[in-house]
Amino acid sequence: MSVRVRFAPSPTGFLHIGSLRTALYNYLFAKHHGGQVILRIEDTDRTRFVQGAMEEQIAMLEWAGVTFDEGPHVGGSYGPYIQSERFDLYREHAQALLANGTAYYAFDTAEELDAMRARQQAAGIAPRYDRSAMRNQYTLGDQETARLLADGAHHVIRLAVPLTRDVRYTDLVRGDVVVQGREIDDQILLKSDGFPTYHLANVVDDHLMAITHVIRAEEWLPSTPKHVLLYEAFGWTPPEFAHVPLLLNADRSKMSKRHGDVMVSDFRKRGYMPEALVNYVALCGWNPGTTEEFFTIGELTERFALDRVHKAGAVFDYRKLEWMNAEYLRKADAALLAEQLLPVLSERGYPFIDLDTVAATITLLRERVHFLADIADFGDYIFGDTLAALDADVEASLRANDALVQVCKGLVGTLDLSSSEAFKASVEQHAVAAGVKPGSLMKPLRMVLTHRDVGADLYTTLALIGKERCIARLASFAG
Questions:
Q1: CA distances from 219 to 26, 239, 278, 285, 355 (A)
Q2: Are strands 156-159 and 166-171 parallel, antiparallel or unpaired?
Q3: How buried is 461 (Cβ within 10 angstroms: 0-12 exposed, 13-18 middle, 19+ buried)?
Q4: Phi and psi at residue 123, to the nearest 5°
Q5: Helix (H), strand (E) at residue 113
Q6: Hey, is 103 helix, strand or coil?
Q7: β-bridge partners, 216
Q8: What is the pLDDT, as a whole number, of residue 78?
Q9: Is residue 256 pLDDT above 80, yes or no?
Q10: Closest among 440, 445, 382, 371 to 409, alpha carbons compared
């Protein structure tokens, strides 16, 4: 049997980092088994539809390297994979359930349902549709039901849950699951406006698209018994289920914006590399079985197995992700990074800088930053000549250093950046003349030339700034 999985987001918002992990686990599992990954947009909840959300979700998945074999973005085709374009299909299947007696019509008003829930809560009963006490096909009878339908009465179609038996299935992450029938609500399948609910559309599509494994977040666990019953009602074999743990904040609450970035686009804007984000997210809830932490998506595909997915929620550690991003930044090809950084430098008003200089600057400074864009800030003294203002006391101290001023004046005419040794010889010549040790001038010289008290190797830094620009800065300081 060929493995077929699907990632089925709802366009009610932009792509959440937890959804990226779900999509990634589906991708890794399918590709590990030589299978296929389908992208399906579940947009049956039109009241929460967000314009542009579908396009954003697809774009973020592509940015992260999670690709699909079938879906609304493959070949520019939308139809088969957008649920709002399949409503007639869901209505036909709802009618099939009515015909075989596993679903029924219900005519309750919103006020009647509110009253039912109030009675149940007053009696200490968990709210659930009371089939025996409400206005539905069972209590009204087929003749009255037919009359109401003919009159166009407000109605829905509900699943007829068998209350006297257990629902059993095996979860590939959580093991055997047993739920008593009386704990399952008679779920609405077709709403009064003729739109299907998530449950009906989800099961119909998974069957018709030949999905073999449903890998989704644990928040869908309560829905799974209903889905198992729907498969039984249709006479279909259900897929394998695997419910992966939620991503959690440090306080073990579900990830939310109150605690930091949660949308994939947030992480992209912050400057995280897709390779680092995918690597870290894969490890949030899955154990590779070794102490290794760095994996390409190909290596993740080779190693991924559902039996190593945790049951407990995974705390999302932003600091660990930041550290991992820095590690990826240090190992990445500097020439490729330079192409990505050049637009950032342009936006910040720096003059055109050739890619070789940008790449060399990245190589020089990336050990000191966590994000590529930070190099534009940290290396401002290389990319431009409007230096950060010195603290007044620091500037006064530098100007009061007569030896420093004397050396700067001397270097204006003799600065040699042809090699590290030549640069040191230039400084030594004037330091000796000023009666000070050359080493004592390196930090003050850095302050004069970069307005920073720390940085990478000074000679390499000055070589990137260039001789003419360095001389101009020395002359400006020395007066």
A1: 16, 18, 22, 15, 48
A2: unpaired
A3: buried
A4: -90, 0
A5: helix 110-122
A6: strand
A7: 243
A8: 54
A9: no
A10: 445
Contact 363, 357 (CB under 8 A): no
Give CA–CA dist 187/164, Å, rounded: 16
Written as six digits, the tokens of 90 are 């869901």
Instruction: Check residue 71 and give its pLDDT.
Output: 86
CB 126 within 8 A of CB 120: yes
Strand partners, 286: 309
* Collapsed DSSP state (helix, strand, coil) of residue 296: coil
pTM of the model: 0.91
CA terminus-to-terminus distance, the chain: 80
Residues 6+ apart with CB under 8 A from 316: 17, 247, 248, 249, 255, 284
Note the pLDDT tens digit of each residue in 114-166: 999 999 999 999 899 999 999 999 999 999 999 999 999 999 999 999 999 99
Q: 442-450 and 392-399 are packed helices; what angle lies between their axes, rounded to 10 degrees?
A: 120
Task: Give DSSP secondary structure letters for 231-290.
Answer: HHHHT----EEEEEPPEE-TTSSBP-GGGS--BHHHHHHHT--HHHHHHHHHHSSB--SS
Q: Is the Cα torsion angle 268, 271, 273, 276 positive or negative in sign? A: negative
Q: Which helix (H) or strand (E) holds 476?
A: helix 467-478
CA distance 451 to 449: 6
Amino acid found at 65? G
Going by C-alpha positions, the residue among 363, 371, 354 that lies closest to residue 461 is 363
Tell me how far apart the alpha carbons of residues 418 and 459 are, in angstroms, rounded to a whole number. 10
Record the tokens describing residue 47, joined without a space. 């009241």
The burial of 260, by beta-carbon neighbours within 10 Å (0-12 exposed, 13-18 middle, 19 or more buried), is given as middle
Residue 175: exposure state from Cβ atoms within 10 A (0-12, 13-18, ≥19): exposed
User: Which residues carry out catalysis?
Assistant: 257
Pairwise CA distance, residues 64 & 280, whole Å: 12
Q: Which helix (H) or strand (E) holds 156?
A: strand 156-159
Instruction: Single out the residue of 285, 475, 251, 465 nearest to residue 379, CA to CA.
Output: 465
In angstroms, rounded to a whole number, what is the distance separating the alpha carbons of residues 359 and 363? 6
Could you give the CA distance from residue 203 to residue 235 in angstroms, rounded to a whole number?
Answer: 12
| Amino acid in the structure at residue 77 | S
- Could you tell me if 244 and 217 are in contact, meaning their C-beta atoms sit under 8 angstroms apart? yes
Q: Please give the domain boundaries of the chain with CATH numbers for all domains.
A: 1-70+245-331 (3.40.50.620), 88-190 (3.90.800.10), 392-478 (1.10.10.350)
